[in-house]
Amino acid sequence: MSTIQHNYQSVTQRLQQACADCGRDPASVRLLAVSKTKPAAMVEAVYQLGQRAFGENYVQDGMDKITALSHLDDIEWHFIGPLQSNKTRIVAEHFHWLETLDREKIARRLNDQRPQSMPPLKVLLQVNISGEAQKSGLLAQDVLPLADSIAGMEQLSLQGLMCIPEHTDDDERLAQQFRDMKTLSQQLQETHPGARVLSMGMSGDLELAIACGSTEVRIGTDIFGARDYSATQK
To answer: Strand 97-101 vs strand 121-127: parallel, antiparallel, or unpaired?
Structure first.
């Protein structure tokens, strides 16, 4: 068994156990394999193990892989990094998902630039649930107004929320932020019932996130190994 196969199986088993521990169906939680900085060959190796959804943080690094793996018809590309205005067209034309939407200006650019021949771009609203000044994301009170704006954009499809919680060793503090996200997700679904995705949880906290209601966990290093930061320059 290759290292990457061992890693992938370990992560999927951990996800399944986390679901079992809180009485959830493992099918209710999607694994997003965070492939940022990793070569296309490694992505294809994980694809061959059954993974379909991959997350990219850097536009050009992601485009290199999208081009190299264009023969994989059912692969799903998620952009999960901060998105600058001058890079929106690339995401609009080549990715399936954007998980870090937090500004109406970016939403309008994506809507205008998404080709009519493609299905609407699926988007998650990024929430700064910890309220940290240095973090991207919407404050809780700004989620519904942006969601309402997106509802009128035909080339965008609002799928739900995501967060990167506070980096803390205090599990109760972390759990409270996850619970706050779950509450916000439920409030969003009252007026936008299709927005059912709640993306929260990474390698260090996936069990807690799943117990608090996450429907997508984002795992990178535990699948692919340490990152190659040279790729971040692209």
So the answer is: parallel
